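Weekly sync, protein design subgroup
Attendees: M.S., D.O., the rotation student, P.L. (late)

Item 1: inverse folding check
M.S. brought a backbone from last month's batch and wanted to see whether the design step gives back something sensible before we order anything. D.O. pointed out we never logged the input encoding, so this time it goes straight into the notes. Structure tokens as presented (299 positions):
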């Protein structure tokens, strides 16, 4: 960031440069812009900002995060951000859940070995699906659509029951596992390299999905359903990236999804597990109710 790239606000007599955060703010730029060079303490209190919001604000404080306990405990001093994170998280023990749900705006390194580390990030990923089949058009379309629907169930199930499992503070192995597969995303939600599944875990998921489809569906429809499942998976990945860094227009499908996913990250960690759709949240009772806003959000 150059010295001219500034958007300063005040909070309890301290200054914060939130320029890098403007496009990521869940409330949109238009809610924040009127507060340049103004104190936001009352505004944040009146709008019932979450603990995660107050914690994230510390990232942008002039001079860096404070160790002053009067401002609340800063959990980042429990780890060394200059070292690979995967080897450290298990030592957090019972502090792990609180730490991993306290977001920061940084890039995170999992492994010290550069080759292994590069397998865990996705700077740019293009997937192509080529399918040749002689079936009639309508049954083919229906089978592909079924595959997409199957993926939405997998998407919800993985996010809720695997990615959001709660590791015991006494189990270093479970903390390692949770952090590696999803905890890191809640810790650094703006790290663009970690919003799309890397090739290796993506291949594992695709293989497992194919095995499940093979057990349930006959061979005559298996390829088409798998094609739909992979299509749903790619759509999910692209939507997830867009929800974090895209700028959807008001009253569009993605506008509501972005608001919804932001609520999952910063306020309702135990609900709102749907990414590309809220269908299964509604069915399983984990849907997040979004309040009506007087002013539309602009990202």
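Designed sequence read out in the meeting:
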């Amino acid at each position: 960031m150059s010295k001219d790239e500034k958007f300063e606000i005040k909070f309890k007599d301290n200054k914060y440069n939130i320029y890098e955060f403007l496009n990521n703010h869940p409330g949109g730029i238009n809610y924040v812009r009127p507060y340049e060079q103004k104190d936001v303490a009352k505004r944040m209190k009146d709008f019932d900002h979450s603990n995660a919001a107050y914690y994230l604000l510390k990232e942008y404080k002039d001079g860096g995060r404070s160790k002053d306990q009067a401002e609340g405990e800063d959990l980042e001093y429990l780890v060394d951000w200059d070292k690979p994170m995967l080897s450290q998280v298990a030592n957090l023990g019972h502090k792990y859940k609180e730490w991993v749900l306290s977001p920061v705006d940084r890039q995170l390194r999992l492994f010290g070995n550069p080759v292994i580390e590069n397998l865990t990030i996705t700077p740019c990923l293009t997937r192509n699906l080529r399918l040749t089949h002689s079936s009639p058009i309508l049954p083919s379309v229906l089978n592909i659509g079924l595959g997409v629907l199957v993926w939405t169930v997998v998407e919800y199930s993985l996010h809720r029951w695997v990615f959001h499992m709660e590791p015991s503070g006494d189990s270093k192995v479970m903390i390692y596992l949770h952090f590696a597969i999803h905890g890191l995303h809640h810790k650094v939600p703006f790290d663009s390299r970690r919003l799309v599944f890397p090739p290796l875990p993506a291949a594992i998921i695709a293989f497992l999905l194919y095995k499940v489809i093979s057990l349930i569906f006959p061979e005559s429809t298996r390829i088409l359903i798998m094609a739909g499942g992979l299509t749903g998976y790619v759509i999910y990945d692209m939507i997830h990236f867009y929800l974090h860094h895209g700028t959807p227009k008001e009253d569009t499908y993605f506008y509501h999804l972005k608001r919804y996913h932001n609520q999952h990250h910063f306020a309702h960690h135990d609900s709102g597990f749907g990414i590309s759709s809220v269908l299964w949240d509604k069915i399983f009772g984990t849907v997040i109710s979004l309040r009506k806003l007087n002013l539309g959000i602009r990202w």
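Discussion: The two ends are 20 Å apart (CA to CA). The chain has a mean pLDDT of 89.
Action: P.L. to compare against the previous round before Friday.
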